[in-house]
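User: Structure please.
Assistant: Input sequence and predicted structure:
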Amino acid sequence: MVTKQSRTALALLALAISSFAIGTTEFISVGLLPLISEDLDISVTTAGLSVTLYAVGVTVGAPLLTALTSRVPRKTLLIAIMIIFILGNSLAASAGSIAMLLIARVISSFSHGVFMSIGSTIAADLVPEDRRASAIAMMFSGLTVATVTGVPLGTLLGQHMGWRTAFIAIAVIGVIALISNLLLIPNTLRKGNRTKLSEPFKVLKNGRLLLAFAITMLGYGGTFVVFTYLSPLLHDITGFKESTIAGILVLYGVAIAVGNIIGGKAANKKPLSALLVMFILQAVILLVLTFTAPYAAAALVTITLMGLLAFMNVPGLQMYVVLLAERYMPKSIDVVSALNISAFNAGIAIGAYVGGIITDELGLIHTPWIGAIMVLGAVALTAWSRSMENKDTKGKELKASA
């Protein structure tokens, strides 16, 4: 007999499989850029638009599609998301031109935005209140596994069997996720809260939240000036063979997973202070990569440290935004969370686009220090936010003592 606890664990597994598929497709183009460039007879920079436009799709889609689908039953919406995901990746696998590939990537991105907005809510609803954090962590474990295994394995598959095969494999994982959701997610999930389409625009009128979104965009996006073009950088500048690059991406993924755990613990008490230190270290490592990239051993060490810091800021950024939402817009926490997902992906889009321009105009070796400048922008904004938070705290203390 299947217990309630077992059913819950299986439902969370279904969500984790879905997040694994979505996490893999988000960054798979990074490892496949040289192959796509060669096969479609386009520049690496043009191929890089497959990263940029995917991120733009998530940026726009996360808040707007979440609002538009707020009254759709959660399981129905989850099934629809995975069908769109499968269609998008199947279209990417059959793309004969860059235009078709970009359309396919945008279609896939729409499923990403909505899934990240509702996935954690569904996970939290499956368990008692005292286990919600663990349930959400279980759902997001699929993203972590994707960075460690999905993207490198997809890259390796693309190198040996063609880049389209990687998208076919992702579509197959999407089918597995769809079936898992159909069979394992209960039909008794609560309905979503009705959200007006104007709600995201109301949130954007709050200056403190806008500042937090800007920190997310610059701090998270700075690394993508380099990361988007990491495969050609490792091949053309450092001199690694294509077969070796997949292994380096595994190392990078492991570093991301470790950094994410460290970042979560570090940001528990004082997220802004922790973020300030993380961003400073991140900017320094990106700057150092400019000088170590031509040397294999030094480049490997620097890139590992870059991976360690790349996602370390994510828990702190998300936590700080939620704290601000609870303080200023408690009825719009879901929308605020969706907009921060948009900010993450706006950072990816800007970073990837800027990286493409730098690659064309100055060369790949210049992407790291340009990324460092972007992160330094986050350092300045974080310091400003921390200063305002300290003033708020002092003001409360003075009122309390009066």
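DSSP finds 17 helices and no strands in the chain.
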